[in-house]
Structure formats: structure tokens, C-alpha cells
């Protein structure tokens, strides 16, 4: 069976990207798994520290394994944005396929230190676990935003530079790198997300020498995604748009039938709405739309 590393390499060769979607409940997992199978591409499920606290670390691992086995399908599990070594260890020990150590808010030196420690722990425990590192602050949560959060790197001088990317990769030994290239976590209520600096993506990919991950995919245009993939992005993260699809569908479901009390009936339209969204994104990312 192909590993996540194999699928990423394959996507890079084909100039496509893998989709990474976060879940906070089993409805999200079924929606994403069915969408991936319908489109015919592998997929990565992400769970942030908060999402893991809610679902249970070992429990979400068991759920994803069970659904992947049932569908006979490559579905991988990532410990998204992890801020401490303890929580990295917990995810590696639980058998996650990938972990992200997020030191983007730390100084470069502190970020190198914690990221290197995460890589060392993961390698010693399981050589198949991929470790992703981050440089450049792009905001912290998948929510609807009034304005761009303070401190987000958007001007050319504060985006990730190709030189620091190269240095960071060689000092830490990470497998994947998440840069700040005009992307932001969350989605602006008024629309008009900043565009991705694709020239910067290409320059970072060249210097870093490892696959790049684009975070904060909600709100970006299809054109931007296609250009970013062409420039060297191999994985794209989407969360806020999925949360909005879930919220809107649950709200409508409750409004349409206020007397319905069966959770699986209330939630069914939410699963369908999320599946539809994930299918659209996966087709786009894999050059099928
Ligand atoms: O790690 C998760 C993401 O980067 C999601 O970002 O909520 O802007 O789609 P988003
Ligand atoms: Zn992210």
C-alpha cells in the first residue's frame, strides 16, 4: 500500500495537490471520505489540538482507520497545528500519519529547536510519520473574520523568504513545509482574500527542496489554487469553508423541521453539503474540473 509520502510525490509529479480537510465530528469524516472516493483521489483528514480534544486523540485515529478500511481507500490522518512537544508525542504514539509542529509565532531559533525535537521524536518512533514545520505567521483560527488578524505576514518583507526556508529545512530535517505566501487562516466575511504570491511559492519550493503545504485555503479563488499548485504547492488545507457549510446546513435543517429530534436526520443535509464542497475542491486540486 502506498504511503502518504508516495501520494505526495505522485501529486507533485502530476502537478496536482492533495486536499487536507479538518473534522470536528464523524459527520465531517464521512463527508470527506465519501467525497474522496467519489472523485477517486487520496485525502488527508486534519484535526487541530481543539478538534482532537473534542474527538479524542486515539478515538479519531480509530475512526479514520475504520472508515478507510471499510471504503478500502487511502485516507490519511494529520495532527494539524500542534504547539507543544507533548501533543506531538501523543499524536505520533497514537499512530497519526503526519504531524505539524507549529512554531510560526516563535523566534526562528526557538522554532528550529522545537521543530527539530519533534522530528527526532517522530523518526525514533515511526519512520513513516511525516513532520511538517511552519515559518511565517498566517493567523491562528479557522473562523469568519471581520479583518485580517494583527501580525499576519502579508507584505513581501514578512512573507517566508526562500533563504530562511532553506535554512529551516536543513536545520530541522522536516518532510513538509508550510510557508506564509499571502495565505491567511480563516475567511474574511466581506470576501476579497489577499492573493497568493505564486512567485514566492516557486522560489521557496526551489530553495527548500521539500514539498510545500498551503494553509488557510478557505476564501481563496480557484485561479489562485491552480497557480499555486503549478508553482509548487502539494497539499492544500481547507477548514473554515467546511465549517460554514456545516453550520448553514444544520441551521436550515432545524428551521425546515423544528420538530425533528433524530440527530442523524438533522445532520444528514450537513454531511451532504460538506461532501459536495469537498468534491468540488478535490476535483479542482487534482485537475479534474
Ligand atoms: O490547518 C488548517 C487550515 O490551514 C485551514 O485554513 O480555515 O482558512 O481554510 P482555513
Ligand atoms: Zn492551517
Protein described:
The chain starts with a helix and ends with a helix. It is of the alpha/beta class and 289 residues long. The chain has one domain (4-285): Aldolase class I (TIM Barrel, Alpha-Beta Barrel). The longest helix has 23 residues, at 263-285. The strands form two sheets. An eight-stranded parallel beta sheet has the order 7-5-4-3-2-1-10-9. The protein has a two-stranded parallel ribbon with strand order 6-8. α5 (85-94) runs parallel beside α6. It has helices at 4-13, 26-39, 49-55, 57-71, 85-94, 108-125, 162-172, 198-208, 222-231, 240-256, 263-285; strands at residues 18-22, 43-47, 75-82, 98-101, 130-135, 144-145, 176-179, 187-188, 212-214, 233-238. It is built from eleven helices and ten strands. It is globular and about 60 Å long. Bound molecules: glyceraldehyde-3-phosphate (G3H) and zinc ion (ZN). Residues 22, 46, 80-81, 142, 185-187, 215-218, 237-240 line the site of glyceraldehyde-3-phosphate. Glyceraldehyde-3-phosphate (G3H) is lined by residues 22, 46, 80-81, 142, 185-187, 215-218, 237-240.
Amino acid at each position: 500500500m502506498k504511503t502518504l509520502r508516495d501520494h505526495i510525490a505522485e501529486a507533485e509529479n502530476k502537478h496536482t495537490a492533495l486536499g487536507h480537510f479538518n473534522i470536528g465530528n464523524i459527520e465531517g469524516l464521512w463527508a470527506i471520505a465519501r467525497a474522496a472516493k467519489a472523485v477517486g483521489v487520496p485525502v488527508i483528514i486534519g484535526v487541530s489540538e481543539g478538534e482532537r480534544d473534542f474527538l479524542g486523540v486515539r478515538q479519531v485515529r480509530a475512526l479514520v482507520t475504520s472508515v478507510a478500511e471499510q471504503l478500502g481507500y487511502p485516507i490519511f490522518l494529520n495532527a494539524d497545528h500542534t504547539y507543544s512537544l507533548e501533543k506531538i508525542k501523543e499524536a505520533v504514539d497514537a499512530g497519526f500519519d503526519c504531524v505539524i509542529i507549529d512554531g510560526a509565532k516563535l523566534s526562528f531559533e526557538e522554532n528550529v529547536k522545537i521543530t527539530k525535537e519533534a522530528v527526532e521524536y517522530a523518526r525514533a518512533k515511526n519512520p513513516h510519520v511525516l513532520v511538517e514545520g511552519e515559518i511565517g505567521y498566517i493567523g491562528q483560527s479557522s473562523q469568519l473574520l471581520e479583518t485580517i488578524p494583527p501580525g499576519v505576514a502579508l507584505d513581501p518583507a514578512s512573507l517566508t523568504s526562500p533563504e530562511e526556508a532553506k535554512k529551516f529545512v536543513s536545520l530541522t530535517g522536516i518532510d513538509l513545509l508550510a510557508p506564509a505566501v499571502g495565505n491567511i487562516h480563516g475567511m474574511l466575511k466581506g470576501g476579497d482574500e489577499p492573493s497568493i504570491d505564486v512567485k514566492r511559492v516557486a522560489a521557496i519550493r526551489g530553495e527548500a527542496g521539500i514539498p510545500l503545504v498551503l494553509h488557510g485555503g478557505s476564501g481563496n479563488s480557484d485561479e489562485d489554487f491552480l497557480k499555486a499548485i503549478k508553482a509548487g504547492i502539494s497539499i492544500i488545507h481547507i477548514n473554515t469553508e467546511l465549517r460554514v457549510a456545516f453550520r448553514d446546513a444544520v441551521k436550515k435543517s432545524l428551521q425546515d423541521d423544528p420538530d425533528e429530534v433524530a440527530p442523524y436526520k438533522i445532520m444528514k443535509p450537513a454531511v451532504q453539503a460538506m461532501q459536495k464542497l469537498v468534491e468540488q475542491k478535490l476535483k479542482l486540486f487534482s485537475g479534474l474540473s
